[in-house]
TrEMBL record:
EC class: isomerase
GO cellular component, one term: cytoplasm
Domain of life: Eukaryota
Enzyme Commission code: 5.1.3.15
Protein species of origin: Gossypium raimondii
Membership in a protein family: Belongs to the glucose-6-phosphate 1-epimerase family.
The keyword Flavoprotein is annotated on this UniProt entry: no
Biological process, per Gene Ontology: carbohydrate metabolic process
GO terms of molecular function: carbohydrate binding; glucose-6-phosphate 1-epimerase activity
Keyword entries, A-Z: Isomerase
Name this protein carries in UniProt: glucose-6-phosphate 1-epimerase
SUPFAM superfamilies listed in its UniProt record: Galactose mutarotase-like
Catalytic activity reported: alpha-D-glucose 6-phosphate = beta-D-glucose 6-phosphate
Amino acid sequence: MSSERVPVELSKGVNGLEKIILRETRGSSAEVYFYGGHVTSWKNEHGEELLFVSSKALFKPPKAIRGGIPICFPQFSNHGPLEPHGFARNKLWSIDTDPPAFPTNSSSKAYIDLILKPSEEDMKIWPHSYEFRLRVALGPGGDLMLTSRIRNTNTDGKPFTFTFAYHTYFSVSDISEVRVEGLETLDYLDNLLNKQRFTEQGDAITFEAEVDKIYLSTPTKIAILDHEKKRTLVLRKDGLPDAGEVYFLQLFY
């Protein structure tokens, strides 16, 4: 009997919500809920969970799932007239049966293509037609890769603007043992001080008190160092040049 791991599996998750489980041959895995197009788990080859999901997460629509990787669209945070972080994280996504070519490692079989289109109710809130395509993939080394493509499908060709983010929650040890490198000397907006703009002065970001900052024009590579777990997570991006967010809000837990 073959012991080969099934790379993509449809399963039932919390409260019966459907999810996709991705498995890479060396042992890493990820879980993606159709509700919100939401990644809720990413484990390395040792089975260690790399994402944080709150114990208060309800997994009950229309509430957004607290933790993991929420998709913020068509608005990030409260930077606009819509509800904070938009509505994509509160919608039921579908499998994309005709996805475009994605620049994902072709040797990986552990991926899923999802798509979100606006409903009539969505159009009343935000009157623009679009197709949001999302690919979630595990690379051969267990890297988690999210690729998004958003297409304007307005029949009149009228353009629209939006903001977008992967609002990732990483699992770390004691927050005092964590530092973030790659944001040095950047300007940021401090959400705890009414979005006042400052320039980062430290050599690395550390956490000694409540923090909620949006860094502007962030680099393509950022590292999160967890000294207690002796683990480093490296974030790489392409095509999202405007802002990154680093925060530690004790009330969330």
